[in-house]
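Q: What would this chain look like folded?
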Amino acid sequence: MPITRLAECPAKTWKNGLGRTRELAIHPPGAGMDDFLWRVSVAEVESAAPFSAFPGVDRVIALLEGDGFTMALDDGRSHALTTPCAPFAFPGESGVQVTLAGSPSRDFNLMLRRGRVRGGVEAWHTAGARQADAGTVLVYCVRGRIDTDEGELRAGDAWRPGTGTPVLREGTLALAVRVEPTT
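A: My prediction, written as C-alpha cells:
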C-alpha cells in the first residue's frame, strides 16, 4: 500500500514499555523488532522516560510537534530536540534519558540496521515537484498537502514512492527518508 495514514496505525508500546509509537513502515514487510533492515515510526513522548535500546541499529530522530525535549546520551553528549524537522542521528544502543522542554511531544524515527543499510532524513519545504529517487523509501507529510500519483497526502500521511513525482503545495513541510544498502 503506497499511502499510510498515521491515524490508522495502531499505537504500540515501546520496546521498554515506557511510551507509545505508531509504525509507518518496516522493511522487509512483516519483520519484527529483531530482524528489520529499516523502520519508520512516530513516537509520543509524554514523560521523562528513557528511550528503548536498539543495539546494532543507527537511529535518526526529528521533532514533529510539541515543545520537544533534551536527550542526555550515556556518552556524555546532550542534544536539545526542540527545532521541528531538524534530524539528529545517534547509535541505538546508547542510553538516552529525556527531559521534556514543556508539553508532550511527537517525534519521527528512522531506524537502520547497522552494517546492512545506511540512510537519513531530509526536510523538504520548497513547493513544487521533488525527485524521489530509488533511495527514497518514504515521504512523510508534516503539514500541508502533497500530490502523488496514488493520491493526496495530508499531515500525518506517509507515501512509499512507486511511480511519479511528489508535488508539494505551497506551505508544505515533509520529511523524506533515504535508505540504501551498505554493501
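The first strand starts at residue 3 and ends at 5.
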